[in-house]
Structure to design on (396 residues):
């Protein structure tokens, strides 16, 4: 494995797996270019140090073969704008034509290949397809964290054709470093905020975090399974009855490990799941029949934000309530603001894996935390301690 900072790209063609899976509207215009922006430092590093760049990515979920609405040609001009470079495009990723286009590429130029997923071989991790793709570069860089948890041709299998000439791009490096700053080098007190809809999708991460952190704030729909496990009355709130025993075990384990678990003490309950619903604040342990908890209450906001502001390391995964609906966004917003305040006071904060990323974006706070992960599922699996194929393939 090589390091992008030390590598000499002069006269080299770098084949970079990026995640340009950006949202497009009906007129096929990009509505959020965050993922393209995130890859720019790696692309510029190669171009500015004498090399050329061949970019490969997927876009959307094409069913079988090419579909115009999933063509990467729609993003060529934005890539050119953001990189300040000439961007050539080729309408296939493995054809002779495509290989010729990369052979003819001049230093300082970019070639964008057509959507990898127009071939089913990509997601199948096909070795021959990987071999064909490998013809495009002298060196392979993986900078697509969002797909690092998949053993696809372009994210993992291809690395075997670059036994030593392979490396991470800056984006993946930053994701790996950020997790290390929480899980292995985190300064105490370390607080994990785990919210979102269900205990079932977060249980592995909670168990893993218990080994590392001082405090775990449980928010969102998950909190009501915990409240019920502690003997509370949860009305119509989201509760996973199958996970009540698991919640009890988590609480017992936390006690044994001296980890403080904060379950929001009060709740904003609603009589239906809409912005116009009637609301009342009640104890999380005593939600009236017919009412459901959709946000944390004022007392809970204070308990959680006090804990966050006292932390030196913060990991946030999952919102505190149904923040997509304005009436129930306050808890998540106040948590986001306290994470920002802690960061301004020197804490390290990582927001990743779950809808908390959408929440910090919604409140325009993404630039005010230490790192916002670009990989939802990949970040969740990485935090759970799983080996990601895209990372393993580079490390070797
Ligand atoms: P996740 O992807 O696991 O982070 O879950 C995010 C989803 O959880 C969001 O769409 C939220 O609207 C939802 N959510 C948060 N709090 C609640 C709640 N109290 N009841 C139902 N859904 C919730």
């Amino acid at each position: 494995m090589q390091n992008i900072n030390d590598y000499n790209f002069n006269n080299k063609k770098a084949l970079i797996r990026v995640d340009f899976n950006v949202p497009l509207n009906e007129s096929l215009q990009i509505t959020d270019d965050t993922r393209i922006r995130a890859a720019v430092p790696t692309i510029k590093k190669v171009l500015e140090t004498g090399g050329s760049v061949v970019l490969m990515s997927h876009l959307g979920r094409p069913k079988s073969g090419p579909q115009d609405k999933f063509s990467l040609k729609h993003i060529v001009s934005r890539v050119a704008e953001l990189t300040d470079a000439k961007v050539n495009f080729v309408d296939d990723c493995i054809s002779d034509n495509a290989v010729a286009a990369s052979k003819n590429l001049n230093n300082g130029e970019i070639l964008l290949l057509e959507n990898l997923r127009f071939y089913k071989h990509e997601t199948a991790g096909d070795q021959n397809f990987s071999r064909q793709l490998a013809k495009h570069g002298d060196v392979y860089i993986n900078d697509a964290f969002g797909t690092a948890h998949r053993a696809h041709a372009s994210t993992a299998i291809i690395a075997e054709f670059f036994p030593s000439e392979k490396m991470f791009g800056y984006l993946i490096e930053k994701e790996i470093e950020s997790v290390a700053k929480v899980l292995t080098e985190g300064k105490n007190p370390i607080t994990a905020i785990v919210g979102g809809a269900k205990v079932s999708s977060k249980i592995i991460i909670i168990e893993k975090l218990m080994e590392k952190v001082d405090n775990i704030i449980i928010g969102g729909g998950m909190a009501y399974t915990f409240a019920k496990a502690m003997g509370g009355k949860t009305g119509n709130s989201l509760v996973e009855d199958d996970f009540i025993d698991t919640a009890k075990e988590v609480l017992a384990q936390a006690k044994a490990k001296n980890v403080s678990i904060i379950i929001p003490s009060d709740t904003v309950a609603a009589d239906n799941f809409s912005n116009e619903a009637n609301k009342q604040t009640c104890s999380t342990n005593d939600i009236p029949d017919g009412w459901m908890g959709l946000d944390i209450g004022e007392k809970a906001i204070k308990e959680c934000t006090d804990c966050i502001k006292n932390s030196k390391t913060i990991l946030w995964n999952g919102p505190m309530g149904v923040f997509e609906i304005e009436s129930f966004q306050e808890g998540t917003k106040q948590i986001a603001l306290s994470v920002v305040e802690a960061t301004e006071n020197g804490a390290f904060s990582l927001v990743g894996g779950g809808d908390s990323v959408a929440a910090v974006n919604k409140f325009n706070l993404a630039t005010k935390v230490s790192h916002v992960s670009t990989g939802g599922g990949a970040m969740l699996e990485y935090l759970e301690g799983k080996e990601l194929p895209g990372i393993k393939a580079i490390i070797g």
